[in-house]
């Protein structure tokens, strides 16, 4: 399908008459990072995934500005409208997929297109900006800044793109050593995709952190924090009630990728429980 002149590769599985779940991957992944979770969810739900712009089999736009959040959100809504025009989708995002999904659920009118949202390891950048201001000088702020060292590095011209071309072939071994993740799918296009995806950071972090907006949503949001996440501190999920009144928090003893690859069962269960809660008003077992 096409969004804003960009051809997006979309993948669907599961029963056609079931509620639609839309999975949005992060960086430097493709839709394949969801393989295990999609397989579980597709037993009961219609599962849709897509390669975000610049990744996998989707087109790559030219220029850093083409990776701004408004364009990523436009793609997300275009896919949602195409695969489920009659009913809102249940949205799930990981890493950068979660960041852009936050942008979508905090847009005016989002409740007409999104039934629920599960966020995994990717905060709203506007919420982060306020969090940093409120925690200035505290140990938790320093902890998060140390985890986010790569964001500053990605703003260096040219060098990150060159390094990714060297690192890409070692990525499975890196994840095995750092997170204990084995069998992580690496797309043949990873070096190219990772180099392109640096634009996600360059296009969005400075504008959002320097000029945060008041981003609220009435959509039911489930935030899954990962205790062993090396990049996103669980502390970033604190204080979200001011922005998200219908909020549930859950946690897993997993790393940034291991919650999706290798031990995806608990994550898939949490996603299913929120969907059941919204669709059938069954208790998801989550903690407000």
Describe it.
With 288 residues, the chain is α/β, with parallel strands linked by helices. It has helices at residues 35-41, 69-83, 96-105, 125-134, 139-147, 149-153, 159-167, 171-179, 190-210, 265-280, and strands at 2-3, 6-7, 10-13, 20-24, 46-50, 89-94, 114-120, 220-226, 247-252. The mean pLDDT is 92. The protein is globular and about 45 Å long. It contains ten helices and nine strands. It has a seven-stranded mixed beta sheet with strand order 3-5-4-6-7-8-9, with helices on both faces. The chain has a single domain (2-280), classed as Rossmann fold, CATH 3.40.50.
How do the helices and strands line up, and which of them pair or pack?
Elements: E1 2-3, E2 6-7, E3 10-13, E4 20-24, H1 35-41, E5 46-50, H2 69-83, E6 89-94, H3 96-105, E7 114-120, H4 125-134, H5 139-147, H6 149-153, H7 159-167, H8 171-179, H9 190-210, E8 220-226, E9 247-252, H10 265-280
Parallel strand pairs: 4-5, 4-6, 6-7, 7-8, 8-9
Antiparallel strand pairs: 1-2, 3-5
Compact description:
This protein is of the alpha/beta class and 288 residues long. Helices cover 39% and strands 15% of the residues. The chain has a single domain (2-280), classed as Rossmann fold, CATH 3.40.50.1820.
Give keywords.
10 helices; Rossmann fold; 9 strands; alpha/beta; seven-stranded mixed sheet; 39% helix; 288 residues
Query: Could you state the oligomeric state of the chains shown?
Result: single chain
The figure for the number of domains is 1
Instruction: Give the C-level CATH assignment.
Output: Alpha Beta
Shape: globular
The largest sheet, given as strand count, sense and whether it forms a barrel, is:
7 strands, mixed
What's the gyration radius in Å?
18 Å
**Annotation, overall tally of beta strands:** 9
Indicate the CATH topology. Answer: Rossmann fold
- Helix-strand sequence: EEEEHEHEHEHHHHHHEEH
Low-confidence residue ranges: none
Separation, N- and C-terminal Cα atoms: 37 Å
Spatial sequence of strands, sheet with the most strands: 3-5-4-6-7-8-9
- Counting helices, strands and paired strands, the structural category is alpha/beta
Beta-strand content estimate:
15-25%
Helix content: 25-40%
Give average pLDDT, whole number.
Answer: 92
Q: Helical element count? A: 10
- Give the full name of the CATH homologous superfamily: Alpha/Beta hydrolase fold, catalytic domain
CATH architecture: 3-Layer(aba) Sandwich
